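Anyone up for a design puzzle?
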């Protein structure tokens, strides 16, 4: 309030030609201000003393509730809703009025809440974003803002942003071009940074790079909230993105930028351009890669295979598929294979069939994996190459047909089948289909959640290879070490840390990932390994502390009422140390 008042007063006086006035020294928030500030509001949990101190007497019911009682009330009302999108809206409203209660509720029952605040419900929420919009959240950039982005960033309420998630809305999940409606993705991702990774929500900034949409239906929607023009392309697109990145470096120099749901061409291009310029990564390429690699590493305990002996086939060859493939190559090189040998263990099948060297035109991200092979359909390629692992990243439902699953089962005693496309309706096959068509042999994982499956007297609990297992812990580790660069080794370390937390009991039930209820513990361990790796790669600013995992846990955001447990900026070690090398 004080900062806002001083800024407005200064502009008014300057416009009238008056000298600057002394800054107003008193914030003077009213009880109504407190109740309408989502970060401060505790609603009925304000104590008698707090009600007197903040001018809240008469503004609240008599009872002083505990946060647990408030959570139970939230869940009771939430479970009355008849659709997931209604639940999403209800939780969004809670986040807008009482942020700590929102996160407390989500953390208390993450297995119930996470599918509602992110996949699969966030897909429908993005499709309807302009129609269910209530309160502005996040930062919007349009082509009309060219030349003003740095100035606009001064309007953001916080000065120490540490994590930024940005999308241009062109490839939202498997739903395509949703334009500015894609803002639901950065908002949802950053909620998971807090819920799963313990990043203080005050340090998070969702950004919509709203450069238009080629979705004509959206542009013609009278309620559409985005820039109602065809997409900006070419040099104008790149110049606007460069201005954004430069503005972040100046305004929020310690921020990590996460690129999210960009079209394949832009995803690889932007990552390549900025990975050595600013602290950044692309979750669709690198986060998906790490969570998939972790699933593969965990599956070895069931198949008895070594990673270097696997033959891995992808159906789909976009940014997710080739990102996973690239990280697998690095993991195989650690096992002693040359880069050429590692790439020969991986094959891609796209809409035209097996990607081969004889193909007339091959996109840059696919070229390293083109095989010396005649053109072939998926089934022909499977029968010839005999993959041990089949990974779906198509965005198209039902592409793992009964014939595909049965063939994998004939080729392997324990076929590993990952149907990673989101949302659930776009998965290559369902968990039920995978287990039934393989007669219970499949080791299955998916990108969206599936219910347990009963088959032949056994209960299978399919693992969800959700990026939320990776990016929150990555962000926390990068944040605490203040890394100047995100390296591939960090993602390898994250994948190994995740795989190591899968228990024998998890594997017996058919899941390749730890229970979601343990995800904050998972994130703490991943953050610890990322900090260690940042030191090994010499990209840190804040060095690894003693008892690193304890240090990480102490700096994770706690939404409980009372003294704040939000993560403060780490204090640099004052002892002499080697300077980091950004390259």
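Challenge accepted. My sequence:
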């Amino acid at each position: 309030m004080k900062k806002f008042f001083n800024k407005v007063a200064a502009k008014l006086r300057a416009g009238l030609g008056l000298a600057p006035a002394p800054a107003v020294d008193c914030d003077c928030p009213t009880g109504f201000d407190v109740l309408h500030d989502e970060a401060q509001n505790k609603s009925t949990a304000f104590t008698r003393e707090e009600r007197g101190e903040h001018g809240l007497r008469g503004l609240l019911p008599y009872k002083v509730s505990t946060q647990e009682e408030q959570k139970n009330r939230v869940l009771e009302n939430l479970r009355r809703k008849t659709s997931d999108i209604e639940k999403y809206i209800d939780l969004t409203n809670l986040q807008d009025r009482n942020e700590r209660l929102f996160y407390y509720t989500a953390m208390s029952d993450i297995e119930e809440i996470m599918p509602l605040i992110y996949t699969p419900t966030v897909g429908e929420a993005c499709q309807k974003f302009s129609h269910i919009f209530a309160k502005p959240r996040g930062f919007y950039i349009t082509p009309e803002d060219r030349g003003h982005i740095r100035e606009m960033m001064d309007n953001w309420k916080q000065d120490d942003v540490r994590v930024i998630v940005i999308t241009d809305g062109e490839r939202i999940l498997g739903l395509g071009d949703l334009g500015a409606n894609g803002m639901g993705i950065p908002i949802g991702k950053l909620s998971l940074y807090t819920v799963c990774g313990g990043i203080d929500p005050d340090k998070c900034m969702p950004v919509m790079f709203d450069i238009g949409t080629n979705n004509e239906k959206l542009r013609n929607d009278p309620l559409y909230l985005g820039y109602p023009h065809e997409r900006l392309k070419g040099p104008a697109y790149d110049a606007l993105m460069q201005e954004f990145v430069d503005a972040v470096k100046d305004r929020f120099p310690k921020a990590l930028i996460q690129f999210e749901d960009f079209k394949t061409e832009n995803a690889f291009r932007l990552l390549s351009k900025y990975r050595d310029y600013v602290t950044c990564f692309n979750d669709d390429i690198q986060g998906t890669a790490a969570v998939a690699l972790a699933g593969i590493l965990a599956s070895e305990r069931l198949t008895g295979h070594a990673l270097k002996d696997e033959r891995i086939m992808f159906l789909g060859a976009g940014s997710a598929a080739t990102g996973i493939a690239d990280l697998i190559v690095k993991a195989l090189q650690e096992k002693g294979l040359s880069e050429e040998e590692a790439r020969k263990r991986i094959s891609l099948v796209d809409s035209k069939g097996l990607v081969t060297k004889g193909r007339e035109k091959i996109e840059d991200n696919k070229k390293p994996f083109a095989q010396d092979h005649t053109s072939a359909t998926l089934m022909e390629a499977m029968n010839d190459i005999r993959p041990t692992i089949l990974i779906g990243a198509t965005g198209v439902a039902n592409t793992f047909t009964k014939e595909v699953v049965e063939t994998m089962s004939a080729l392997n005693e324990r076929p590993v089948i990952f149907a990673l496309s989101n949302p659930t309706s776009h998965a290559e096959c369902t968990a039920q289909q995978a287990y039934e068509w393989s007669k219970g042999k499949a080791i299955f994982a998916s990108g969206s959640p599936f219910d347990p499956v009963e088959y032949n007297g056994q209960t299978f609990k399919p693992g969800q290879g959700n990026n939320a297992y990776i990016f929150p812990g990555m962000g926390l580790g990068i944040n605490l070490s203040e890394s100047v660069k995100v390296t591939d080794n960090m993602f390898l370390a994250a994948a190994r840390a995740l795989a190591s937390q899968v228990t024998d009991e998890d594997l017996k039930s058919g899941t390749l990932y730890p229970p979601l209820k343990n995800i904050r513990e998972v994130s703490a361990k991943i953050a610890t390994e990322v900090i260690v790796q940042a030191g090994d790669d010499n990209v840190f600013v804040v060095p690894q502390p003693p008892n690193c995992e304890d240090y990480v846990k102490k700096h994770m955001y706690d939404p409980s009422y009372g003294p704040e447990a939000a993560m403060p900026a780490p204090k640099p070690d004052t002892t002499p140390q080697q300077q980091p090398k950004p390259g």
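A detail worth pointing out: The chain has 25 helices and 14 strands.
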